[in-house]
Amino acid sequence: MKNKLILVIDDEPEIRSLLSRFLGRKGFSVLVAGTLKEGRKLFNDSKPELVFLDVNLPDGNGLNELKHINSSEFRSKIIMMSAFDHNEVKMEAIQYGALDFLSKPFNIARLDQVVQSQLLNTSNIK
What we know:
The chain has 126 residues and is an alpha/beta fold. It has a single domain (5-120), classed as Rossmann fold. The chain contains five helices and seven strands. Strands 2-1-3-6-7 form a five-stranded parallel beta sheet, sandwiched between helices. Strand 6, helix 4 (87-95) and strand 7 (100-103) form a beta-alpha-beta unit. The protein starts with a strand and ends in a 6-residue tail after the last helix. One of its GO terms (biological process) is phosphorelay signal transduction system. Pfam families: Response_reg. It comes from Algoriphagus yeomjeoni. Residues 5-119 form the Response regulatory domain.
């Protein structure tokens, strides 16, 4: 799993820091963005294998960005995140192509399980 690139798009500095540190200790390269605009640029420039994408961002809705990413030429695995644990949002995220949904705050064991399963299962890329 070394050298795999992960992009984190979340407006909360604490979440970006937590994910960056956790994933970095696991040996991944991590890019972080606090807005959709910044995240879209990093996505297009770096083509990450996995993206952690917040649903609610200051400059837009992560579900709309999920649709955009899944319609692009390069496909990444997407894990949606939200502090609002609504089943409708989870179902919509999965319907639009998210491979999993994490509720904030994270359970580290669950986070590790998601990362391991998504980066070891290459058949999930469309």
